[in-house]
Specification:
mainly alpha; 1 helix; 21% helix
């Protein structure tokens, strides 16, 4: 039987500053969908 190996703890990804996020486009239908949702539970 193969021995159990210890899995290293997963590290959290480093946050990305908003200035590095570019080229992201959101379709207008999606924007309307999110804007029409209530703040909680949808």
């Amino acid at each position: 039987m193969a021995p159990h190996w210890v899995v290293p703890a997963a590290s959290a990804p480093a946050p990305v500053p908003p200035s590095r996020i570019h080229g992201v486009t959101i379709p207008s239908a999606s924007v309307r969908l999110i804007a029409d949702m209530s703040e909680y539970g949808d």
